[in-house]
Amino acid sequence: MNKPLMAKATAVWLIDNTTLSFKQIADFVGMHELEIQGIADGDVATGVKGFDPIGSHQLDAGEIEKGEKDPAYKLKLKHNPAAEGEEKRRGPRYTPLSKRQDRPAAILWLVKFHPELADAQIAKLVGTTKPTIQAIRERTHWNIANIQPIDPVALGLAKQSELDSAVQKAAKKRAADGGVMSDDERRKLVSTETSLSMGEEPRLPTAIAGLENFSLSRDEDEKPEQDLNADSFFNLPESDDDDEDED
């Protein structure tokens, strides 16, 4: 069932003008029952003017009468072409005022560590505009010298699942375009969930690093001055002491 237009204002009107239960109103406008109770208590939607669903041809008066007589009755929304897809409408992501100053840092992090992401993906993730992204990407932003890259998930501007989804889409697009990726780029295109499930790569201890290139064999062209073996260490040259005694 589609939601009525101006759901919160409609809930205010139903609370003020009917005896419907909170559950009935919540089911009709698509809100939680506790939110409806909060509106009734004056804690939620303060200052919101009620919107008449009957006058806007979204609800019949007979539906309200049935609901008032039977608390288990669910109100039926009248077909309104203007309300179709209302719950699916998508606008730009809203960013609280307290976090808007963090967006340049998040953009710089995405541009630096995920350059494969398109400007449209970054704009959707952190709720910014393409000119701002372009300015940071080209380092022409007015405050670029003071911006430090910070993970948008850590800043609370995006969810980890949203970032992983965007990265995976970028990976599929890169693969479809036939682009050749470096090892670093390939690691960046792996989602956080996948990277955490990977085992650690075997590494040599620092103390013996480089020994994989060490060899005891000599080149065939290299000819040693003399063959070294166990006997050569014990067959010492004869001493000249006898000659000295004869003298």
UniProtKB/TrEMBL annotation:
Top-level taxon of the source organism: Bacteria
InterPro entries reported for this sequence: TrcR
Spans annotated as Disordered: 80-99, 174-247
Pfam family, one: TrcR
Protein name: DUF1013 domain-containing protein
Biased composition (Acidic residues): 238-247
